[in-house]
Amino acid sequence: MQTLAIGCDHVGLSLKAAIVAHLIENGFTVMDKGTTSATRTDYPHYARAVSLAVASGEADGGILICGTGVGMAIAANKVAGIRAVVCSEPYSAQLSRQHNDSNILAFGARVVGDALAKMIVDGWLGATFEGGRHQARVDAISGGPGNTEMAS
Ligand code: RB5
Q1: Is the pTM of the predicted complex or chain greater than 0.85?
Q2: What is the whole-number distance in angstroms between the Cα of residue 23 and the centre of ligand 1?
Q3: Does 70 contact ligand 1 (Cβ within 6 A)?
Q4: I need a surface site. Which of 31, 44, 85, 147 has the fewest CB within 10 A?
Q5: Does residue 66 line the site of ligand 1, with CB under 6 A?
Q6: Per-residue pLDDT of the chain (152 residues; tens, 9 = 90+)
Q7: In angstroms, how far is the first alpha carbon of the chain from the final one?
Q8: 103, 145 in Cβ contact below 8 A?
Q9: Cα-based distances in Å from 94 to 40, 58, 105, 119, 147
Q10: Choice among 10, 22, 99, 134 that is catalytic
Q11: Is 35 close to ligand 1, i.e. is its CB under 6 Å away?
């Protein structure tokens, strides 16, 4: 992932600025989809803007920040082709890339501090999808057969 779309609501504004700076310092291209002010706003708008950028290929991946990350992930997962995860620690972020091919990372500004958020982002960006047995499982999310028949 080289080009990242990022979005937040009013709660995530300060943490988004810290993450944007961290990404630029580390050589990534960042597309900021807002919000850009502290005025109270609604997270689904920014989740959708980032998700559409990822689903269309405009961005390689996306990062979403609200109070918990939960609303952002729920909204992002409504867009076809998006696999958004909420992570509050780096291990799940890393495994979500390796096993689930997550393409959007969400976290909460009321849950994690700046330093932990940067570790979560680094863990996510440093991992790659392993494919293999995980590919069929990811395909099954969108209606593929998967590895096994489900018991009825
Ligand atoms: C805003 O109060 C809050 O609901 C939002 O930032 C987010 O946590 C929603 O999931």
Answers
A1: yes
A2: 24
A3: yes
A4: 147
A5: yes
A6: 999 999 999 999 999 999 999 999 999 999 999 999 999 999 999 999 999 999 999 999 999 999 999 999 999 999 999 999 999 999 999 999 999 999 999 999 999 999 999 999 999 999 999 999 999 999 999 888 877 665 44
A7: 39
A8: no
A9: 32, 23, 10, 10, 23
A10: 99
A11: no
